[in-house]
Amino acid sequence: MTITRPVSDVAFLHLGFVAGRSRSLGPDARPVAVPDDVDDPRHPKATGRVRLPVTVDWSGDGPLTYDLDRVPDRRRVYEQVLREGGDDDVRRYIDVEVLLADWEDLVLPPRVRRAWADWFRRHRGADLAC
After folding, report:
1. How many whole angstroms separate alpha carbon 91 and alpha carbon 93?
2. CA-to-CA distance for 51 and 1, rounded, in angstroms?
3. CA distances from 106 to 6, 14, 27, 48, 97 (A)
């Protein structure tokens, strides 16, 4: 089915509807940020209390403050950054040694686990469960 709606006085927008799920859209279509240099010590890591950028922490009523010294907060930050963040976000908020230590306790989609397991295999020789 196609619906035509006026967008302005001279333009029209055609919206097509597709039954079922799209294989090219949605969370599985998003790339996973896994910068090769995430463990480079020249990239300063966030510590203490942080507020994530709106591009990462986009749901809810407003920006929350997380305390990276508290395990539940740190894990929530890691889950959000690994799912939603770009390369720069990952470089700033993710410490790969902490990620490795918390790996089993993080709630991550399979596509994120596979991408990071590949990084750990290539850079650390570690074989992580996906």
Report:
1. 6
2. 43
3. 46, 42, 18, 20, 14
CA 67 to chain CA mean position, Å = 19
Are 44 and 51 contacting, i.e. CB atoms less than 8 angstroms apart?
A: no
φ, ψ of residue 87 to 5 degrees: the values are: -55, -45
The Cα–Cα gap between 29 and 22 comes to 10
For the chain, residues with pLDDT lower than 50 are: 2, 12-15, 17-18, 21
Boundaries of every domain in the chain: 2-124
**pTM of this prediction?**
0.77
The pLDDT, as a whole number, for residue 26 is 66
